[in-house]
């Protein structure tokens, strides 16, 4: 207990660790991405509308384009269809058949819906109409030249549709950060391999790689590294050369077989923090190379590795792309009381529920840092501040949406 307290004195809190991580981020390069491949990417430049949208005055209804005025019986002198405008202009006292989305013929300024007319022998009887009735104006949605999407926007379905309507075919996006995932441990085996005595499967590699992809990165390397100083150093050197962000799991503590920190020191990676007042995830290390590569030394325990990635590496990846690093932060009501840790902030894997008063969270099963299945069904991590006693049901807590 005394030891724990001595260490706690040097631990930094989560906001400080996040701040140090984000402070080290330099914006990555940008590239042109075809709209068909841009889903999920982050814009690196504003998008302006190339033309008015809609590009021309068009009809909101199927019906007849007319000159607004009193009703009467009018000859039908042509047709305007979607993609095929009328070939002639409209004179007062005439009607042109028109479809939804078709261009309003020159001279017309109103559309009478088909339901309101009687048609016979090439003529229509129309009621009175006001100017502008059922006319969608050019530029009502977007004005030519206006900024419609800002740099830093994540391109979801709505943003892609807007970009295309605005005339874009290539989008300037942040290049996906290249991430290397190294998992240290003599006990680790690849999926599909038989387990020998004392061996476990390398689940971190897959969980961390998926989290990296979800944060917008491309995983360029994934490797198991034996608990051996020279192999650790060589693997880290290679990873640093190949990636913008290196995540190494395990081997970061101070045991006789933990070689990550000495190897990083030998490679000249500058330590920016070591040890966070966090449970799970205390033994987390972060540093940077002279070339700007970020290196996250994550705990080997499977839940700790995922939690610390999400809290520290994911925001750094988003920031490198120019996106909001805190977009996944929210607040929620805690539905059950939880015991607090006296000195460390706890990260609870929680089920997430939307209620009338916002998000509610409730911890999933057994919260041990080796209980991977505690992540199943968890829609959020809840951050429970350090303190004595319990945090009561009904209290509001900060959450990280997953
Ligand atoms: P370490 O941080 O290397 O002391 O590892 C802490 C715990 O996490 C040990 O029980 C390891 O076996 C386990 N562990 C380390 N790396 C992995 C991994 N890649 N996948 C699953 N479990 C791991
Ligand atoms: Mg280990």
Descriptive account of the structure:
There is one protein chain. The chain is α/β, with parallel strands linked by helices. Helices cover 20% and strands 31% of the residues. It has a six-stranded mixed beta sheet with strand order 7-4-6-5-9-8, with no helix packed on it. The chain has a six-stranded mixed beta sheet with strand order 16-13-17-21-20-18, sandwiched between helices. The radius of gyration is 30 Å and the shape is elongated. The protein starts with a helix and ends with a strand. The model has no long low-confidence stretch (mean pLDDT 96). Bound molecules: adenosine monophosphate and magnesium ion. Adenosine monophosphate binds at residues 183, 185, 187-188, 200, 202-205, 249-251, 253, 299-302.
Features:
28 strands, binds magnesium ion, elongated, binds adenosine monophosphate, 6-stranded mixed beta sheet, alpha/beta, 7 helices, 402 residues
| Model regions low in confidence, pLDDT < 50 over at least 5 residues | none
Q: Strand content of the residues, in percent?
A: 25-35%
Instruction: Write down the Rg.
Output: 30 Å
The chain-level mean pLDDT equals 96
What small molecules accompany the polymer chains? adenosine monophosphate, magnesium ion
Treating each run of at least 4 consecutive H or I residues as one helix, how many helices? 7
Largest sheet: 6 strands, mixed
Instruction: Tell the overall outline.
Output: elongated
User: What is the spatial order of strands in the main beta sheet?
Assistant: 7-4-6-5-9-8
Q: What structural class do you assign from the helix and strand content? A: alpha/beta
